Amino acid sequence: MNKNYALLLLGLLLVLSQGYRNQGKDEQAAKKEIKISVLPGLQFDIPRFHVQPGQQVTLHFQNNDDMDHNLLLLKPGTRVEVVDLATNMGAKGMAKDYIPESKAILWHTKILHAGQTGTLNFKAPLEEGVYPYVCTLPGHGYIMYGAMYVNKSGKMPSLAQDKNIPPSNAANAHAHHAHQDHPFEQKPPYYYRTYMEGASPAAFAVRLSDQLAFCWDATHCKLRYIWSGDFLDFTAIWKGHKDAKAKVLGDIFYREGALPTLQIGSTAHAEKPKFKGYKLLKDGHLEFRYSLAGQDVFETISLAPEGKEIIRAFRIPNLKQALTFQPTQLEGAGSFTYQGKPLPGGKLSLDAQAGKQFTLVYSLNP
Amino acid sequence: MKRQFIYLLLILLGFSACQDAGSDQKEVFHIDTIKTPDGLTAEVAALDFLPDGRLVAAFMRGEIMIYNPKTAAWSLFATGLHEPLGLKVINEKEMLVMQLPELTRIRDTDGDGQADDFETVYDGFGMTGNYHEFTYGPVSDAEGNLFIALNSSSSGGGVSPELRGDTLGIGRAKEGKPMFSIVPYRGWVMKISKDGQVTPFASGFRSPNGLGIDAKGRLFVSENQGDWVGSSPLFHVQQGKFYGHPAGLVWTPGWNQGNPFDLGAEKLDSMREKPAIIFPHDLLANSPTQPVLIKDHPQLKAYEGQFIIGEMNKERLVRVALEDIKGNMQGMATIFIEKQGLRKGNNRLAFAPNGDLWVGQSDHGWLGDRGVQRISFTGKVPFDVQDMNLKQDGFDLNFTNAIADFGEVPLDSIVQIRRYRYLYHQKYGSPQVDVEAIKIKKADVKNSNKKLSLQLEKMDAGFVYEFQLNQVFNKKRTDSLENRLYMYTLKEKLF
After folding, report:
1. Å between B233 CA and nearest CA of chain A
2. Which of A72, A272, B49, B292 is the 20 to 30 A CA-CA neighbour of A310?
3. Where is the DUF7133 domain (chain B) (predicted)?
4. Are the CB atoms for B67 and B93 separated by under 8 Å?
5. Residue in B4, B41, B131 closest to A242 by CB
6. What pLDDT does B25 receive?
7. How far apart are CA A232 and CA A213, in angstroms?
8. What are the CA-CA distances from residue B102 to residues A249, B123, B403 (Å)?
9. 3-state DSSP assignment of residue A87
10. CB contact under 8 A, B164 and A201
11. How far apart are the C-alpha atoms of A283 and A188, rounded to whole Å?
């Protein structure tokens, strides 16, 4: 059955390529119109096209993806250089549409949001060559690019041997592109249970926003680290049949050790914490529950509405003893505050009443 | 223009070639492929059914989705799960899910069709972060006890800096690269009683990718060929027994015999419980998966009480007919469905309430396929060997239909019997050894021509007896036997 499909496909391709070849002969003088959109996994749907030197070209770039993109046409051989420049623009890039200062850039669109179309009208260069087009949003340009062939002969290498187009590699599709990895759109907050670096194998990764995520460890029943930037790369782990961990794509800016942060009563807990599960709250945040010194603890880690603070909220409804909160902070400039004040000596002590429900705040821009 | 015409012709030829597969099996069942949602990597990790006939499917990337066969619509029930390789529906708002780190009860408490509460039922086993620490089940017996199985860890992978569970260094071979068990209960089947009591139930499993309970409540577990597993078997699993892979023995309560790998093959062989069924490698199954029981199935009455088992490496499902020989389970295995549109990677199976058999496929870096297929049965009884019965000096082969007179054809060209064994050793897999052709002393056709009784020259425990049947027709000679190979695992003789 599969073979028959392949045959059918082959037939269709051949018929189509005949059609294209005939069309090609008439294009010399005519104005060329190119339509490009986006495929899942950071790819332009057209990996390359051909124009005659000096030909008038109209290029419509339709961003049908759900993330932002732009399109730049560049001088031959300058793609990586321009992409690096765009990457180095850092936080200032957005305001400038991720268009760096460079003489290598011939034409470009602005940032196109989901559903928007940008149009470029230009006269193709007279000099024959392979002119890259690329999206320079952070991370995209290394895999999201294509090639405009400018020559009189109309010749292009076979697709399989073309070094000017991205290797059509499914693995690329996974990198940086978590929301394309499932049959639904992922909007933070959302989570995965997966193998993570710097945690036990029973780990949670929770994405709080496009720029923030944390790792929570179900073995130790505690927060392990928080990072900023992109979320996770599952490429290796989803291939299967080999050891792998979900790779943290951003920068870890806060990290705790495996030792207990929460201490109920004055002596060390006789038993290890016991993970009991979690609730998916209406707003998508997770409320972890576990028992500590025989007490049920409920913990939620969320982002304040303005996105400037991480809120760590605890409920221990049946608390009968005093408690302390003292993270073994291994990394991180900032620290948690309680009622607007830093923890004295890095340690918060609460009596049985105050400890029934309390909130700690980590300011992201102290 | 002329050339385009030829391409068109090629296309048409391609279509017509699709239609020429007419066989007797085709009248017994048909297979269709279910369209899965765009964006889904359909590596099926688990399947089960809601009482109303909707399919629940879990996938390796952590989704649980519900498919309504009436509307062909998929909906999302849960996401973010850690390789949910097992699923047991309680009702449409509650199910048990076996993930790598735990058995979880997931519930939709607000009735919006999506799970919002995730309760850890059991996570008291260890993890090293090794990729092969798969978890299987749960299945439940009549009393409501749950059984799960924990894969041993693969030497093809390593161990993370942080573990879960207290480690013992001795569940690992000093030489060679067999699977290992350095955290609790890797390589075990665990029992979880209704009140939450957990019992380490049986040990010695390497990669037990399939649990099933038969009509009498007996637990069966399939196993994959590899180190200490000569050819993939199906075990009848009973409490306290050891099933052959040494690594997990260290977690036997009161274990005081040091590194189990040091005991040697002979000693380990004397300790182990042998398979109820051996699937000869490359002949029947190389990577058997989940057994599902044929129970009260109107179209498969001939096979009532038997198991259908998936196979990863071929476009095949396997059928197992067991018999109880004085408390010892053993029996026959053969092909149930081969090709006919079925794909490879048949990792998970589930019967729908209406009797359709749904198959979920996966590869996950191994040989296989992806997606969901549905097998509907027409009710026509295929001409086949229904089951086999062990006799003092041979076997009875029971056919689903009366067989035609063999006429002038000599018996030994119609029935050819071989036997062979597999070695029990640390090496990965075993060749067939002690292979020999077995002579038939006497053959009788009984029971209105539905039973072929064979007396054999040699009957010895520990061998697989392989029956190859050629040119066997049903009474009216309308059907010939589609299957040719039937393997009986002679674990114990009748005495």
Report:
1. 22
2. A272
3. 75-227
4. no
5. B131
6. 56
7. 9
8. 27, 4, 51
9. helix
10. yes
11. 10
What is the pLDDT of chain B when averaged over all its residues?
93
Contact A200 B82 (CB under 8 A): no
**Tokens standing for B372?**
């969901």
In sequence order, which residues have a C-beta less than 8 Å from that of residue A75 and are 6 or more positions away? Answer: A103, A104, A106, A131
Give the total residue count for chain B. Answer: 495
Domain count, chain A: 2
User: What is the Cα gyration radius of chain A?
Assistant: 27
Q: At how many degrees (to 10) do helices B2-17 and A2-24 cross? A: 160
Domain shared by A321 and A278, yes or no: yes
Check if A10 contacts B (Cβ < 8 Å). Answer: yes
Domain that holds residue B439: 389-490
Residue contact A190–B80, C-beta within 8 A = yes
Instruction: Confirm or reject contact between B53 and chain A (CB < 8 A).
Output: no
- Domain that includes residue A232, residue range: 187-363
List, for residues B70-123, the tens digit of each pLDDT value. Answer: 999 999 999 999 999 999 999 999 999 999 999 999 999 999 999 999 999 999
Chain A residues within an 8 Å CB radius of B365: 239-242
In a domain, A266, yes or no: yes
**3-class DSSP state for residue A56?**
strand
Amino acid type, B285? A
Average pLDDT by consecutive 10-residue portion of chain A (366 residues)?
Answer: 52 46 48 88 86 95 82 96 87 84 96 88 96 88 91 87 74 42 94 97 97 97 95 92 92 92 90 96 97 96 93 97 93 89 94 97 83
> What pLDDT, on a 0 to 100 scale, did the predictor assign at position B16?
36
Total of domains in chain B: 2
Whether the full predicted model's pTM is greater than 0.90, yes or no, is: no
Per-residue pLDDT for B24 more than 70? no
Tell whether B23 is within 8 A of chain A (Cβ): no
At a CB cut-off of 8 Å and minimum separation 6, what does B21 contact? B340
Tell me the one-letter amino acid at B176.
G
Nearest-CA neighbor of B179 among B151, B202, B203? B151
pLDDT of residue A40: 65
Question: pLDDT digit string (tens) for B135-151?
Answer: 999 999 999 999 999 99
- The secondary structure of residue B239, as a DSSP letter, is T
Nearest to B78 by CA among B119, B132, B38, B131: B119
Nearest C-alpha of chain A: how many angstroms from B108?
Answer: 10
Task: Establish if A1 belongs to a structural domain.
Answer: no
Shared-domain flag, residues B479 and B421: yes
One-letter-per-residue 3-state SS of B159-195:
CCCCCECCCCCCCCCCCCCCCECCCCCCCEEEEECCC
And the tokens for B208? 């037990």
Provide CB contacts within 8 A for A91, sequence distance 6+.
none
Q: Tell me if B15 and A15 make a contact (CB, 8 A cut-off).
A: no
User: Under an 8 A CB cutoff, do A240 and B14 touch?
Assistant: no
Contact criterion met (CB below 8 Å) for A273 and A292: yes
Same domain, A151 and A198: no
CATH of the domain at A83: 2.60.40.420
Q: Which two tokens stand for residue A334?
A: 């900032």
Q: Is the ipTM of this complex over 0.95?
A: no
- Per-residue pLDDT at A173: 38
SS3 A86: helix
Please tell me the distance in Å from A13's CA to the nearest CA on chain B: 9
Dump pLDDT digits (tens) for B397-431.
Answer: 999 999 999 988 899 899 999 999 999 999 999 99
Q: Are B488 and B467 contacting, i.e. CB atoms less than 8 angstroms apart?
A: yes
Interface touch A182/B60, C-beta < 8 Å? no
